[in-house]
Amino acid sequence: MNAREKILQRVRASRRETVLAEPWPYPSKSGDLVEQFSQALTAAKGEVFISQDLANAWETLGTILQRLGAKRVVYNQEPPIDGDHLKSRYPQYDWAALVGETQDIKQVCAKADVGITGAAFALAETGSIGIFSSSSSSRFTSLLPEVHVVLLDRQALLPDLISWELVRPKKMPAQLVFVSGPSKTADIEQTLVVGAHGPKRLMVIIYGR
Amino acid sequence: MNLNLRRFRQKASAALADQRLQAAITKASTHFVDGRADALSGLPYSEEMRDQLKAIRSSTMAELGEHLETFERAAEAVGAKIHWAETGQQACEIVIGLARDRGIDKVVKSKSMVTEEIHLNRALEGAGITPVETDLGEWIIQLAGEPPSHIIAPAVHKTREQVAALFSEKLGGPVLTDIPSLTAQARSTLRQEFLSAGMGISGANLLVAETGSIVLVTNEGNGRMVTSLPPVHVAVVGIEKVVPTWQQAEIWLSLLARSATGQPLSIYTNIITGPARSDDLDGPEEVHIIMLDNRRSQILASEYSEMLSCIRCGACLNVCPVYGHVGGHAYNSPYSGPMGAVLTPLLFGLEQHQALPQASSLCGACLEVCPARIDIPGLLLKLRKEQVARHRLPVWDHLLERAAGWLMAKPRLYRLVSSVARLFGGTKFIQPLFAAPLPEMSPRSFNQLWRSGELDK
Question: Which of B119, B284, B285, B412 has the greatest number of beta carbons closer than 10 A?
Answer without folding.
Answer: B284
